[in-house]
Every structure is written in structure tokens, then in C-alpha cells.
Amino acid sequence: MPATRGHHRGREVTRIEAFVDAAFAFAVTLLVISFDAIPDSVPALVDALKGVPAFAASFALLAMFWWAHASWSRHYGLDDCRSVLLSLVLVFLVLVYVYPLRIIFSSFFEFVTRGWIPSSLQVRTPAELRTLFLAYAVAWTTLGLVVVALYRHAWRLRDALELTRDERIALRGMIAAHWMIPATGVLAMAWIAIVSLAGLAALSPFSGFAYGLMGFTGLAVSLAERRAAAALPAP
Questions:
Q1: pLDDT digits (tens, 9 = 90+) for 2-30
Q2: Would you say 109 and 166 are in contact if contact means Cβ atoms under 8 Å apart?
Q3: C-alpha to C-alpha distance for 235 and 5, rounded to whole angstroms
Q4: Pairwise CA distance, residues 184 & 214, whole Å
Q5: Among residues 169, 218, 227, which one has the least CA distance to residue 1?
């Protein structure tokens, strides 16, 4: 995600920011301890290391949402009731989805490696495959919506925060950037629903192409900032 330009208003770590940081660290710990027992042989070590790709993908996803919250907190320093509530919802969703995300990525890597990387979850039918991709889409979408809500809350308080013109333009860009998360998630869910209704649940994995639209985030940011610059009076 693009960096927000401007001053850092959250100079001191608030209690809710510290809590969110601790919750994300705990979520990462849950990912680590979800490995089986310590390997006692070289083959067992190799098998254990096969779980690293799923862990890395899950870690990267958690890190992305942690950074979105950390950047929001650092730049706007909000600690009001709505900010606390949204932050708690984000923590709740992360802790709910941490294991499912690990299982989902584990199953994905098992699929793309044709079983070389094993998964604890066995997908036996197209309906189960659909459920797998739907679970990921729901997690991605709901987490993204909370992040969007945080940045929109900062926008509603733009006057109270005394944001400069450049900061307001950058904030509109950040909102557009984070809207790409739930937007792609909704597209993925729509694809899953369509193929399911058509009796083609086996095509559910193609919903993954929707997330490729995240590559247009830079374009979305550019357009949003351009519109904001045109709407805001010049200094």
C-alpha cells in the first residue's frame, strides 16, 4: 500500500495500538505453533519445512493488515470510541481467521505442488473446494472493510485533525487503495456464487484471478488523488 504523506500525529503508542500489535504478534505465534512436533529426523525436518510456504503466505497477509493499522494509527493518532471499536473488530477477525488462513494456504500449496507439500485438510469434492475459496474471500473482504472504515473515520475527522491539503489528498488515495481489498474479495465471492449456481463448483479456484486486480491499486490511488486535488482549493 502507498505511504501516507504528512505529519505523524500518533507520536505516542496508544493502549489500543499496543493491544493491536500484541494481538497480531499472538496471531503469528499461533501460526508458528500450528506446526507439528519438533522433527526428530532429517526426513521429518524436510516434511516440516514444507509447511514454510503456507506460513509465509499467512504471515505476509497478517503483516499487510497490521501495517495498514499501524500506518493509520501513526499518522492520525485517533483513540476515540469508534477507533477503538474498529480496532477491536480487526483483532477479532484476525484471531478468528488465523487458523483457517493457514489451512487454506496449506491446501493451496498442496494443490499447486500436486501433493508434494502436504496439507492437514483434505479437499475431496468440488463443494469442499468452493467452501475453501469462499472462506478466504470472506476473510479478505471483512478484514479489508474494517481497514477502509478506519481510514474513512480519519477522513470524517479531517477538520478536527487539521489535515493539510496534501494530507487530505494522500488520505483519499489511501482510502481508494484499501477499497481494492474488499472490492476484489466481493468479485471473488461473486464468481464462486455464479459457478456454484451453474453447477461448476470445480471452477471456484479461478476466483483467485480477482485478487490480481490488486495490481491496479496504484491506478486507483492516482485517480483518487487527482480527483481530490481538483476538488480541494489550492493553498
A1: 545 545 565 567 788 889 999 999 998 88
A2: no
A3: 17
A4: 7
A5: 218
Q: What single-letter DSSP state applies at residue 13?
A: -
Is the pTM higher than 0.70? The answer reads yes
Per-residue pLDDT reduced to its tens digit, 81-96: 999 999 999 999 999 9
Q: How high is the pLDDT of residue 89?
A: 97
Contact present, 29 and 20 (Cβ < 8 Å)? no
The C-alpha atoms of residue 107 and residue 114 are separated, in whole angstroms, by 10
Neighbours of 64 (CB within 10 A): 14
226 pLDDT more than 90: yes
Distance CA 148, CA 176 (A): 9
Backbone φ and ψ for 31, nearest 5 degrees, come out as: -65, -40
End-to-end CA distance of the chain: 27
What does 28-94 look like in DSSP terms, one character per residue? HHHHHHTS-SPP-SHHHHHHHHTTHHHHHHHHHHHHHHHHHHHHHHHHH---SHHHHHHHHHHHHHH
Which residues, other chains included, contact 4 with Cβ-Cβ below 8 Å and sequence gap of 6+?
Answer: 71, 75, 167, 170, 171, 174
Nearest to 29 by CA among 108, 105, 109, 94: 94
